[in-house]
Design goal:
By secondary structure, the protein is of the alpha/beta class. Helices cover about 60% and strands about 5% of the residues. Helix 4 links the parallel strand 2 and strand 3. Helix 4 runs parallel beside helix 5, helix 7 packs across helix 8 and helix 8 packs across helix 9. Bound molecules: zinc ion.
C-alpha cells in the first residue's frame, strides 16, 4: 500500500508527483486542476504525505504507514494546512492568515505545506494577497492550489505554479476501485460509477447507501412529471429538500470518520471521559464540521442539479442518435419516449437553464430555492 493507491485512473499524475517527491522537479507552487470528483484535493494530500514521509529511502516516500503519512492523510499534521471555505468565497482575512502561516518554518517536517482546496473561490483582490507569498516563497514552504480548471485561477498565479492536470477517471476504473477498496459487489459498483459520472466520492456513497440511490433516482425522474407551473414549484422545493438530505447524510458519515481518526491520532482512551486537552481539540473539530455543513448544502445542490442534467444529457444523446452509453440506463424507455416529444434545441435550452441555476447557486448569494424555481419554470 502507498498514498498513491487512491488515485485510481491517474497514472500520469502519480508518475509526475512521485518523481517530484523523490526530489526531481520539485517546485514551491503547484496548481491541481480537474473536474469535480477527479480527486484534485486527494492528489494534493497524497503529494503532501509523500513530501513529508518519514522514510529515509526516497523511493518509499508516501508509505502510508509512518506517523507523517497517517497524520497528513488524517489532516492533523501541524505543518500541513488544508484550507477549504465554508462560505461561497475565501475571505481576505483567511488569505492573510495563510500568508502568515506560510512565513513560518516547518515545526517538525521537511516542508510546510498549504493546500488551498478552493483556489477558484477567491476574489481577485484576495488572490493578490496570496500572489506575493507565492512569488517570493519562504524556502521551506510549498503551496498547493486546487481548482476545476486553470482558467479559474488568475493568470498571475497560474504562471507561477507547476500544473498537475487530473482527468475524470473512466467509470470502469472507479468501479474497480470500489470493488477493491470498499468490497462493493461488481455489478453495484459498475452502476454506481456510471450514475455518479465517475465522481469517486459520490460513486462510493451510491454504492453503499440505498437511500442515496433512491434520492438520485427521484431527481432524475423529475422531468417526466413536469407539466405546468405547480409541478415546477413543487419540483424546486423537492430538489432543495433532496439536496439538503444528501448533504446531511454524507456529512454525518464523514464527521464520524473524522472524529474517530482524531481520537485515534490523539491516543484517546477507548471509553471513559476524555482528558481536557483532548476535549478542546474535539470541540475545535466539531465547530469546523458545523461550519462546513452549511457550505455542503450548496455543493450538494450543485450535484443534485448535475444528476438532473444527466437526464437531459441522455435525452440529447438519443435525439442526436449517438452511440454513446446512457448515464441513466434504467430509464431508457422513458428517455426514448421523452426524446420524441421535443427537438434537440429544446433539450439544449433546458440544459442551459440548469447550468445557469448551478452558476447562480455556487457563485452568488442568491437564495437556492429562488434560483431553482426559475430554472424549473423554464424546464416545462
Ligand atoms: Zn510515510
Amino acid at each position: 500500500m502507498s498514498v498513491w493507491d487512491d488515485l485510481q485512473g491517474q497514472p500520469a499524475v502519480v508518475a509526475q508527483l512521485r518523481q517530484a517527491s523523490e526530489g526531481d522537479g520539485l517546485t514551491h507552487a503547484w496548481l491541481f486542476t480537474g473536474p469535480p470528483g477527479s480527486g484534485r484535493s486527494n492528489a494534493a494530500k497524497a503529494f503532501a504525505a509523500a513530501l513529508n514521509c518519514d522514510q529515509d529511502d526516497v523511493s518509499r516516500r508516501g508509505c502510508d504507514e509512518c506517523a507523517a503519512c497517517l497524520t497528513i492523510l488524517g489532516e492533523t499534521h501541524s505543518d500541513v494546512a488544508f484550507v477549504r471555505t465554508e462560505k461561497v468565497t475565501i475571505t481576505i482575512a483567511q488569505a492573510r492568515e495563510l500568508v502568515s502561516t506560510a512565513g513560518n518554518r516547518p515545526a517538525s517536517a521537511r516542508w510546510r505545506i498549504i493546500v488551498v482546496e478552493d483556489a477558484d473561490r477567491m476574489a481577485e483582490r484576495t488572490t493578490n494577497v496570496l500572489l506575493k507569498a507565492i512569488e517570493e516563497p519562504t524556502p521551506r514552504t510549498i503551496w498547493m492550489l486546487c481548482a476545476p480548471s486553470p482558467a479559474d485561477v488568475l493568470v498571475t498565479i497560474r504562471s507561477r505554479c507547476r500544473a498537475v492536470a487530473l482527468r475524470l477517471p473512466p467509470a470502469a476504473d472507479v468501479a474497480a476501485l470500489l470493488v477493491k477498496r470498499d468490497g462493493v459487489d461488481p455489478a453495484v459498483a459498475e452502476r454506481a460509477a456510471r450514475a455518479a459520472q465517475s465522481h469517486v466520492g459520490i460513486a462510493r456513497r451510491l454504492a453503499r447507501d440505498p437511500e442515496a440511490r433512491e434520492r438520485r433516482l427521484e431527481t432524475v425522474r423529475f422531468p417526466l412529471g413536469l407539466r405546468g407551473v405547480t409541478a415546477a414549484v413543487l419540483m424546486a422545493e423537492k430538489l432543495v429538500k433532496i439536496a439538503t438530505a444528501e448533504a446531511n447524510s454524507s456529512n454525518d458519515e464523514r464527521d464520524a470518520a473524522e472524529k474517530a481518526a482524531l481520537l485515534a491520532t490523539l491516543g484517546a482512551p477507548e471509553s471513559g471521559t476524555l482528558p481536557p486537552a483532548m476535549r478542546g481539540q474535539l470541540k475545535q473539530l466539531e465547530d469546523d464540521q458545523k461550519r462546513r455543513a452549511k457550505r455542503s448544502v450548496t455543493d450538494s445542490l450543485d450535484r443534485t442539479l448535475t444528476d438532473l442534467l444527466s437526464f437531459y444529457r441522455d435525452v440529447l444523446i438519443i435525439q442526436m442518435g449517438n452511440a454513446v452509453e446512457l448515464v441513466n440506463v434504467e430509464l431508457r424507455s422513458e428517455l426514448v419516449e421523452f426524446a420524441r416529444q421535443s427537438p434537440a434545441e429544446t433539450t439544449l435550452a433546458r440544459m442551459d437553464a440548469i447550468n445557469k441555476a448551478r452558476q447562480r447557486i455556487t457563485t452568488s448569494n442568491v437564495a437556492p430555492l429562488l434560483a431553482i424555481e426559475s430554472m424549473a419554470a423554464s424546464l416545462i
